[in-house]
Every structure is written in C-alpha cells, then in structure tokens.
C-alpha cells in the first residue's frame, strides 16, 4: 500500500520544502499521511474547478503549484470560499499539497518544464541559487537554430495551453532568436538578469508596462509575455512524472484538464495594427 506520506516524500525529494521562499506556504494543507493513495491529480490552482475534477476522477490527493492560503488565516469556515474548499476536500477524503517556490528553483523545476515545452535545450539557471549553482530562478536555453521573433512567438503560443489572453511579444518581429531566458510565473523582477545574460528573448508572465518599456529602451532582449497559468501548467506533467517514476503502476497520476486562468475574454480592437 502506498500512503500519502510515501507520495509526499517523493515530491519533497524532488522539490525540497526548505528551498521555498520564507514568505511562501508550501507543504500539506489537509490530509492524513497514513491514508492510502492510488490516484493523484496535479494542477496549477487549487480552486473549485480543480476540486470538482478531483472528486470526479476519484483522486485521494491534489498536488497544486499555487498555495490555497498564502497568507495566514485564523479560521476556515465552510461559508468562506477557501474554507469551503478545505471542508469539501476533507469530506471527500482528498488531501491537498502545495509545491510553489520550492518547485520554481528545483532542478528540474517549473522553468525547466516551460523551456522543454518551448523546445529549448537548457544550459543553466537564469539566477543561480547561492551555494547550488545548478538550481535557482528561471532558465537559459537554446533553440536548435535561430528564428525570427514573430516565428518564435508563434512557437510559444502553439506550445502552451490556450488562453483567452494568448501570447504577446515586444521587440523587432524580425529579430533573430536563438538564446532564450524563461521564467515560469511572474518574472519581471528578472528583467535585468535576462539583459545581463545576453539572451535574444525572455519568456515569462505578468510583465508590466513601465518595466517592459524601460527594459526595451535600454536595449534589452525581446520580450514574450504569456498568461501566468499557461507558463506554469507544463510543470504539472513534470511533477506527475516524479510520482509515476517513484511508484510505477501502484499510483495513477492525472494532470488537470481544467483551464484555471482567470481571464475569460480577449478582444483586439478592430482599429489596431498588430503583427502575427
């Protein structure tokens, strides 16, 4: 019998909780480590939709990237949205576990999964961790051959799950792209690191107007901005492989099919000019 504790030990070997940022909330949210686990669902967001999915597929464990309760709470009443999820999980016999910034910096981690999805050969971290140069934030990788930014942007859009927002890029559409930095999730804090790395393009999420404009004005690499959820969804397959490899056929692993990106519409003005 494989227990919840067994599965969590495998995940924590791959994504050590001690490497999470001090402000983060990772680990077991609810569940009994002694209970058996035969089916695990991996997702980016622990929200009503993915809990619905976990109940529907009969999972005993949900492994999420984003924490359900990142900030401290004094209670989890059932009439509170997050508290209601905790109550439903417990009543359904489903444990919830989070691997967040510890999964971001792991090797392989969130940005490795993003790089692999895009077709990059990873050469190292964008910002190496102190004392562990093979781990850290973001990744730098290379394409087999250069391609124009417009084609690279299309590559990214085709590689990642579809969202209403889609993918946008900033820079000369004809700029050759071969060496690329990536960072799953919000990555504008690493714009300077991407510029120093001498890459041709930087792929991340949640880029803001002023930092992006100032980065480009200073001669930084082209920017490819994707939806936050889409940039981290490839990690679910990577984490699922950790459990599959550890327990073979005794534990079934499933990757959520629910799109939990909060944006539901994306409309381009008919009077705008844009390059595809």
How do the helices and strands line up, and which of them pair or pack?
Layout: H1 4-14, E1 27-30, E2 39-43, H2 48-57, E3 61-64, H3 81-91, E4 95-98, H4 101-105, H5 110-118, E5 121-129, E6 132-148, H6 149-159, E7 168-170, E8 176-186, H7 191-196, E9 201-205, H8 209-217, E10 222-226, H9 228-232, H10 234-247, E11 252-255
Helix pairs in contact: 1-10, 5-10
Explain this structure.
The structure is a single chain. The chain has 2 domains: 4-102, 3-Layer(aba) Sandwich (Udp-n-acetylmuramoylalanyl-d-glutamate--2,6- Diaminopimelate Ligase, Chain: A, domain 1), CATH 3.40.1390.30; 107-231, 3-Layer(aba) Sandwich (Udp-n-acetylmuramoylalanyl-d-glutamate--2,6- Diaminopimelate Ligase, Chain: A, domain 1). It is an alpha/beta fold. Helices cover 33% and strands 26% of the residues. The model has no long low-confidence stretch (mean pLDDT 95). It has a 6-stranded mixed beta sheet with strand order 5-6-8-9-10-7. The protein has a 5-stranded mixed beta sheet with strand order 1-4-3-2-11, sandwiched between helices. The protein is built from 10 helices and 11 strands. Helix 5 (110-118) crosses helix 10. It has helices spanning 4-14, 48-57, 81-91, 101-105, 110-118, 149-159, 191-196, 209-217, 228-232, 234-247; strands at residues 27-30, 39-43, 61-64, 95-98, 121-129, 132-148, 168-170, 176-186, 201-205, 222-226, 252-255. It is globular and about 55 Å long. Homohexamer. This is GTP cyclohydrolase 1 type 2 homolog. Keywords: Metal-binding. Pfam families: DUF34_NIF3 (PF01784). InterPro entries: DUF34/NIF3, DUF34/NIF3_sf.
